[in-house]
Amino acid sequence: MFSGIVEAVATVTAIREEGGNKHFSLRCPFTHELKIDQSVSHNGVCLTVVAIDEDVYTVTAIRETLLKSNLSLLSVGDEVNLERSMRPDALLDGHIVQGHVDQTAVCTALEEADGSWYYTFGYEQQGDNVTVEKGSVAVNGVSLTVVNSQSGSFQVAIIPYTYENTNFRHIRPGSVVNIEFDIIGKYIARLMRNYTDR
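Above: the chain's sequence. Below: its structure in token form.
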């Protein structure tokens, strides 16, 4: 379980393919604090640490994860948002994020707004994946508030701190991002659909 508050940005140092899987090696400021078998969110995707070598650690993404996320697009040198799993006694500064990316979205517009930025993302509606005005959404693992919720698109506002301390500073129109829709919203949407299908 995560909160969508990014702790650090890691740099991809190596990528190795093995069958349908990819092993990603990354360098980050807290590698020395990690343990084998620990869960870490990478651009919103929960992955398990499988190896540690000094300041570099390795995680493995299976084919299903690669198909549903932007991890398959990563190259050596790319930056990835990181968050370690939340402790039960920790403050929930963001919102409940499972680390199970629902799908990808594409940045369709970027607008600077006197010191902050508005990003617009478009996505293909699948199942119960929806946003609501002022609701929560995780974009590349970052907990954000939805503005201008539309059918198949939404906007988020990014403050300077988030822009400078996450990989949002590299997102431009055409960039592919990971989206995890609000878990409470997904349950409500499913219940409503089951009710109306009766």
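The chain has a mean pLDDT of 91.
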